[in-house]
Amino acid sequence: MLIGKLWSFTGPRSYFVPFFRHFYNSPNMAKSKFEYVRSFETDDTCLRNCYIVVRLDGRNFHKFSEQHGFTKPNDNRALGLMTRSAQSVMEELEDIIIAYGQSDEFSFVFKRTSNWFKRRASKLMTHVASQFSSSYVFYWKEYFEEQPLLYPPSFDGRVVLYPTNRNLRDYLSWRQADCHINNLYNTVFWTLVQKGGLTTAQAEDRLKGTLAADKNEILFSEFDINYNNESALHRKGTTLLWKKHEETVIRRMKQPNAEEKEVPVTRSKRRVENLYCDIIGEQFWEEHPDILEEDNC
């Protein structure tokens, strides 16, 4: 009908010329001429049957924490904001089966069978990084209230593949061991500064060459602090999991030949749960057998 009406138009010929010039020069008609540039893209598809881990790290967060007045050695506001941002990522990408975070980093583990973004590493990493960064800015005021965000934070990311359950567990164990090492050092360091009256240079010099036992001894003998009684959040980091829970809602329903009435309906839903526990030992994995998929021989 449209073509018939156009050709039946009795106006001057100049009316049709712009129309057809636009039609034949449209992007759709010229697409094949330029789409060769796609051949320059490299294939970054992640290998099948592997867990995909996307790890984010805060870029230059030492400076960022100083300029925003983070409490030393641990700022619960900052840790809470990191966790909230990670929850946002998991809620957006439901193929993430577990996430682990400490300090200014978070690792997200995609299940082996995930086909999000056709398993393209660049797509997965950029989506996780952008969702996390935007959430960090979006939820800032909920955690820092009157403290203004002076400039946008940034996070770099990487993608690593782990083919076996043992590989994945060792990776997560490595990150939690790193949390323990860093937090023990920071706890002793800032205790020496804040309670011991040392300068940062003196505290750093005092801790040179010390082992974990030495650091624990300094805390206990000089400041009556038992490191094992410190917050599990600080010592163990944060683990995020999907947990099923029952939810009861009231719905108005009408039965045949009966009046409409309110009826309780129970349904199962998934939500992200925070845990502050050991993930290196066997107990955690025995309590959550649904995280890992069976290794293929």
Automatic annotation (TrEMBL):
It catalyses: a 5'-end ribonucleotide-tRNA(His) + GTP + ATP + H2O = a 5'-end phospho-guanosine-ribonucleotide-tRNA(His) + AMP + 2 diphosphate + H(+). Its EC number is 2.7.7.79. One of its GO terms (molecular function) is GTP binding. GO terms for biological process: tRNA modification. InterPro entries: Thg1_C_dom, tRNAHis_GuaTrfase_cat, tRNAHis_GuaTrfase_Thg1, tRNAHis_GuaTrfase_Thg1_sf. Keywords: GTP-binding, Magnesium, Metal-binding, Nucleotide-binding, Nucleotidyltransferase, Transferase, tRNA processing. Mg(2+) 1 binds at residues 57-58, 104. Residues 166-281 form the Thg1 C-terminal domain. Mg(2+) 2 binds at residues 57, 104. Binds 2 magnesium ions per subunit. GTP binds at residues 57-62, 103-104. Residues 34-163 form the tRNAHis guanylyltransferase catalytic domain. Its cofactor is Mg(2+). Adds a GMP to the 5'-end of tRNA(His) after transcription and RNase P cleavage. This step is essential for proper recognition of the tRNA and for the fidelity of protein synthesis. Also functions as a guanyl-nucleotide exchange factor/GEF for the MFN1 and MFN2 mitofusins thereby regulating mitochondrial fusion. By regulating both mitochondrial dynamics and bioenergetic function, it contributes to cell survival following oxidative stress. Homotetramer. Interacts with MFN1 and MFN2; functions as a guanyl-nucleotide exchange factor/GEF for MFN2 and also probably MFN1. Belongs to the tRNA(His) guanylyltransferase family. This is tRNA(His) guanylyltransferase.
